[in-house]
Write a structure and sequence with these properties.
By secondary structure, the protein is α/β, with parallel strands linked by helices. The protein has two domains: 134 residues, Aspartate Aminotransferase, domain 1; 222 residues, 3-Layer(aba) Sandwich (Aspartate Aminotransferase, domain 2). It is built from twelve helices and twelve strands. The protein has a seven-stranded mixed beta sheet, sandwiched between helices. A three-stranded antiparallel beta sheet has the order 9-12-11. It has a two-stranded parallel ribbon with strand order 1-10. Helix 2 packs antiparallel against helix 9, helix 4 runs parallel beside helix 5 and helix 10 runs parallel beside helix 12. The longest helix is centred in the last third of the chain and has 25 residues. The radius of gyration is 21 Å and the shape is globular. It binds pyridoxal-5'-phosphate. The site of pyridoxal-5'-phosphate (PLP) has 14 residues, from helix 4.
Length: 369
């Protein structure tokens, strides 16, 4: 069977997303038990215990459909964020909200602007709809909002801003963001991805939700990162009612499962878990910064729960050598950076294990460890 003539042409340019390796796979391949994963920006403390308890209680009711409108979660989120319920859309991860946006708005003649490097979902959703992806490199590795604004044309439908940016951990401040909004036309959508919002420490960090009345701005948040619920798949978008209404038109009626909704509801009020996660991350960043400095490796100070650092050898080879020592990280070649690695901030013990493995690998480097 030749599918070439059958397949939608826009699909041909899409390559399958390569996720961070699951721990079990590495254990199987290497025959070692003691493996740690610092590759997918997961919370090293695990989920909020309250969220686990809430989801467990529901297991016996698995035969009942979820609330498609996520009424209780929206009510809690609306109160927590100070927004209206109909300014919220809940997704099967914020990844789904990105896809809903593309399905509702992107057409083949459209251009969509992203930074380079940045999170891969924006390219995927753009290509899926057959729209044209415009990648804008900055002076450094972070978002250059001036250049991104300058890249806007008559055809531009949307701009994705990942803040803090994955994989660099860099941030754009309020002034830069507001200048950007002033520079771009009223007809261009601005998707502000704030997956790492809760980790940011910089005082001049813009809160996307403050701009929801500017009909262009859709802010994305997730329960996958600081709340530690990545396995449940739940995230959300905040924007103008009308914009959210269009996203709801393309949303599957039962897109977010009951367990995720209930877990998210519990996680939202578990301020102790959020606080502990934030403190652990702050201490872990310092621990890793010091280690990189000692090893003479360049790194980007991060506002998120991961750090991008430069490698003296091809990152893919270092990644494999670290993996043989039971430490899984993310080679940044998938982001177009063949000499960088992104490491998630772990517990102090996990960070130490990563540091020791990296020191060993670098000390004994002979090309193909
Ligand atoms: C992790 C991450 C997300 C979250 O995705 P979910 O689908 O909610 O798990 C979104 N955006 C960025 C930039 C991320 O790094």
């Amino acid at each position: 069977m030749n599918y070439d003539r059958l397949i939608r042409r826009s699909i041909l340019g899409i390559t399958h997303y390569e996720p961070g390796k699951p721990i079990e796979e590495v254990q199987r391949e290497l025959g070692i038990d003691d493996v740690i994963k610092l590759a997918s920006n997961e919370n090293p403390l695990g989920p909020s215990p309250r969220a686990v308890e809430a989801a467990e209680k529901l297991l016996a009711e698995a035969h009942i459909y979820p609330d498609g409108g996520a009424y209780r979660l929206k009510e809690a989120l609306a109160a927590d964020l100070g927004v209206e319920k109909d300014e919220l859309i809940i997704g099967n991860g914020s990844d789904e909200v990105i896809k809903l946006l593309a399905e509702a708005f992107f057409q083949p003649e459209d251009e969509v602007i992203v930074a380079d490097p940045t999170f891969g979902e924006y390219a995927y959703a753009t290509q899926l709809m057959g729209a044209r992806l415009v990648k804008v490199k900055g002076e450094g590795l972070g978002h250059d909002l001036e250049r991104m604004a300058a890249a806007v044309t008559e055809r531009t439908k949307a701009v994705f801003i990942c803040n803090p940016n994955n994989p660099t951990g860099t941030m754009n401040n309020r002034g830069e963001f507001e200048n950007f909004l002033r520079r771009i036309p009223e007809r261009v959508l601005v998707i502000l991805d704030q997956a790492y919002f809760e980790y940011v420490e910089a005082p001049d960090y813009p809160n996307g939700i403050d701009y929801r009345h500017d009909g262009r701005v859709l802010t994305l948040r997730t329960f996958s990162k600081i709340h530690g619920l990545a396995g449940f798949r739940i995230g959300y978008g905040v924007g103008a009612k009308e914009l959210v209404g269009y996203l709801n038109r393309v949303r599957e009626p039962f897109n977010v499962n009951r367990f995720a909704q209930e877990a998210a509801l519990a996680a939202l009020t578990d301020t102790e878990h959020i606080q502990r996660s934030r403190e652990l991350n702050r201490a872990g960043k310092d621990q890793l910064y010091r280690a990189f400095e000692t090893m003479g490796l360049d790194y980007l100070p991060s506002e998120a729960n991961f750090i991008l650092f430069a490698t003296p050898y091809p990152a893919r080879d270092l990644f494999k050598a670290l993996q043989r020592r039971g430490v899984i990280v993310r080679p940044a070649d998938i982001f177009g950076l063949p000499n960088h690695i992104r490491v998630t901030v772990g517990t102090p013990e996990q960070n130490q294990r990563f540091i020791r493995a990296l020191q060993e690998v670098l000390a004994g480097w002979q090309g193909n460890q």
